User: Fold this.
Amino acid sequence: MNRLKFMGAPVDEAAHLEAYTEEGADRVASEMGCNWAYLTYNWGFPPEIEEADWIVFQKAAEIYHKHGARVFAYIQTSNAVFAGSHRSREWYARDPAGRLIYYYTGRYMTCWLHPEWQAHLRERIREAIRYGADGIFFDNPWYGAQPLYLDGRWLGPAGCYCPRCRAAFRQAWGLEIPRRIHPQRDEGVRLYLRWRAQTVSHVLAALAEEARSLKPDVVISANDFDAVMRPSFLIYGIDLASLARIQDVLMIESFGLPRWEGVRLVNNAVTVRTARALAGNTPISTIAYDRGIGFDEVYPPRRFQQFIAEAVACGAIPVIKGTEFVSKGVFTVLTAPAYSRERKAIGDYHRWLAEHADLFLGRENAAPVVLLYPGDALWIEWPRMAPLYFGAAQTLLAAGIPWRVVRSPEEAAKAAVLVSLEPLSPAMGFPGRRVVLQELRGWRSGIRAGAALPLSVAALWEGFALRLYRSYFRSRWTRRWIDRLGLVHFFLQSPYFRLPSASARETLIGTIGPVFPRVAAAHPVLIEVWRRGAEEQIHLVNYAETPQEVTIYFEAPRRGVRLSPYEPVAPFEGSYLAFVLDVYSILVLEPN
Assistant:
């Protein structure tokens, strides 16, 4: 698959194959301390090519089971490799011009409503369970074409425009599928995007039901790709709250591998905290990248530990990126012999967390500041709302203030401060302080979509951008040129990791006023507050590249103990605590 996606890129084949042997399973389970593994079962190749992989999956599942790890069968849900017998299939999605829709090189998007595609997925589920899968992992549940966002404007179509999809939408709403996506000003577009997301959820629910009918204890998960830091509802048809009701554990892939760059605080905390509010009682797992698939070298040991610490501090399950790394131009995997230091660092943290597993059970988040999620308005008015929502989240995070996300003011009853993007009705009950971002100096409401370009110019720009996008997947020269210029990261990386201006941050923090607990340090530190009965926990994660001194302030003198990997238990007492934080510490406070 790496060779296909990256046009013949060199691959360390021996290292990849070793990952499915006794040695590979031992490195995953024993060295890294992982209790689940995602094994390739179906990546969309035609059966005459892929059937050999199904046998390998079966043997690998047996090996991983022997080493105490359960396995997800990876199933490609939204696209197929255009080769062999798949060339004659009619299940491919179409754009408004009737063309196939690229999913990277050598693959095309499929139509979720095509009965043959649904039958194909059901067959893959049945066979995966027969071959020993403990869980089914649906990768990339995307519906057809994905619009591009550029300069406040959505470029290109969304979804599938085949006769079947067009007829289904007409039957549902009496409308044609819109060719241009302008959700801010077109109710028909909003109806269509909701219908598209509902279709994804409906089909995925039926597939999950099929899996559970065959194996009642099967674990269902899916790649809810970057479902917070980009408007995935609009781009892919991912409705995170709806999909959470289908999955046993959410899995969110993001580009938020923690990194502090002075003006950009790259993190996964905003994603996890938002997902917590949307997921209900469904557990959340997450995997974070740096630059993205095909662009990252194996991360240093400390960055793996920062990722693990941030995820568990926020109440999520870390999924370790193990594949599609590039070393000296060659694709490699984390189980290769060269990466023993990285595996040990991961394993050390996993074992330490296992020793303290009771700390993570039966808790509720007790952050004193809450950020009100703007709901559908976030994806409908993304150019205006996203800078506000993520700007507030990044400001609070960088300031060392514990915060959480809520979907309604009623969920914030125990908090001290409620931050909303727009004014709320006085009737919406909240006993604490209210802060409205758009009423604060320095907090603009964002840009107006497409306002900078006349329609004629925008149409020309759209045509050029979409032709370049298609060329990226079929031309080696275009791919090399775009990658060298770094243009692909313009679409992959979120602009919302950049902190707002210093004056805007000071205005928000000053309006919120003093809250406790709070952490102060030279560089940003994540702080999460959890309560279990009378016990209070404060989780701290250092975003800096090296250890730094931090000071945490309490509202009144407190007593407790500090727990950290590689360090002995340290008692403390007082109205503040200063110490050197390497990566992760947990303060367990006695009842006040």
